[in-house]
Hints:
The chain is an all-beta fold. 0% of the residues lie in helices and 51% in strands.
Amino acid sequence: QVQLVESGGGSVQAGGSRRLSCVASGRTFSVYAFGWFRQAPGKEREFVAGISRSAGNTGYADSVKGRFTISRDNARNTVDLQMNSLNPEDTAVYYCAARVAGISNGYYTARRDYSYWGQGTQVTVSS
């Protein structure tokens, strides 16, 4: 089992940047693939970015591609989401998620693929 704690949320003006971090504790960090999801008020939780166990594979939602970057540090047990060129549509609660990686060493995009979730961190982008 793994516990996830997100940090780094807050308020930012449109065009600005924010870096979210997710610290994982519990089982060996390197066996997990991770993802970041977000949920805006009145909307479904949606995939933002995913990273494979070895960090060799990453994937992004079309809405954030080219602006957001997911990374992991297996020595620090952290998964980060660097968010640039933020706009008000990025306002949401951001969640870190984890699952034991499969043999393919890929990343995962569906909510049902993940077994563990953090409590979320709010990001608010003002225009």
